[in-house]
Automatic annotation (TrEMBL):
It is a multi-pass membrane protein. It is found in: Membrane. The lineage of its organism: Bacteria, Pseudomonadati, Pseudomonadota, Alphaproteobacteria, Hyphomicrobiales. This is Amino acid permease. It comes from Methylobacterium longum. PANTHER family: CATIONIC AMINO ACID TRANSPORTER 4 (PTHR43243:SF4), INNER MEMBRANE TRANSPORTER YGJI-RELATED (PTHR43243). InterPro entries: AA/rel_permease1.
Amino acid sequence: MAEPAATTAAGDALAPHRGLARNLTAPGLVAIGLGATIGAGIFVLTGTAAAQYAGPALSLSFVIGGIACGLVGLCYAELAAMIPEAGSTYTYTRASLGRLPAWIIGWDLVLEFAMAAATVAVGWSGYAQSLAAEFGLHLPPQLAGAPGDGGLVNLPAAGIILALTLLLTRTTREAALINGLLVACKVAIILAFVGVGAAHFRPELWRPFVPENAGSFGAYGWSGVFRGAAVVFFAFVGFETVATAAGECRAPQRDAPVGLIGSLLITTVLYVAMAAVLTGLVPYRDLDVADPVARAVDTIGLPGFATVIKAGALIGLTTSALTALYGQGRIFFAIARDGLLPDVFCRVHPVSRVPVASQVVIGLFTAAVAGLVPIGILGEIVSIGTLLAFSLVCATVLILRRTDPDRARPFRVPAATLTASLGILSCATLMASLPADTWIRLALWLAIGLALYAGYGRRRARLNRSG
């Protein structure tokens, strides 16, 4: 596509461009992965998973989730190096299965990233209100929670999404720099929490380590450990954002695998350590709150340290929401580029080279969800959407190994058939552990997506081919 001439008209501000700016490197990709991954999963959903499903064995849930993600991460690394384009799983599915399956998974990714950003924003709101309360500042209850949580709208959650959306309409380089600085602060504070918390660890809170089953599948016992793994699997969604950024890498064949695998290894170790300390500071049944880490720090009895940790949680959640919104914008860009969404979503700003329209629409939608939907529902939706996308990534590796075996693969999955098959099996097992109503919500969302494809996308895709 031709380079746009310099214009002054407002209507040309989003003129088509040859592509997104390629200015990311391996350290930047690792920072993006850490920024996206270390967020609501560890600062928010750990409390829900421990209190309702796994108990002190939550650290085992993270180990299981990390193993499943490791298998998927290897498959992502092969595909990201082989097909370094924006769009992540959508782009890989299009390359192996065609437009309709790609649309289905692209629509699923929209759900995944939007719900991830919204979940993080709700957690951010909880920590922000907890920190503000230390200084005597309180929001009216009507503005402090979603309708299902006793309020009318969660104003802080919607507000942080809108602020981050504004940042993402600027250049990728600026957003990546801010993300990198915040990630460094976040990791340092997590290590401080693990170190100080370990010194106040109460071993009696780990007895029994795997609580007895409460009478239903998924409520404690080993079934609870697996359901906890399915719920906190949301915590690993961030490394997929690295794949969506492959189209903006200077050397994607080298940097994308490093970013994917490096960020996944670091986050898994941090998650297991933090879950172990968290359940050793607070009885697991008392962790079912929006700010479980803040609750744990309060038990240590160091007021100044509690303030630092809460501020660190806010930083962590900010980077997680930022990168989720970033990834979703790139998926919208890739889908629109194929004609399945209006062309305005694949236009990039001639100066910042950012898909501004995609980012703005996504930000408004996600802000509405964050302000109006309770966090428990959001977390489960993200997990099932992520697991479905990860299963298709593993399947795509198997398909392309057979249909396009001679294509250059800068990174190859070791024992691809076994690794990808185990990845699919792991994701399917965790999906089966989720409640039935989560499956119903996923089915409704996919049905809406199929209706949009039949009424708009299929015709536009044909027009693109004939043109």
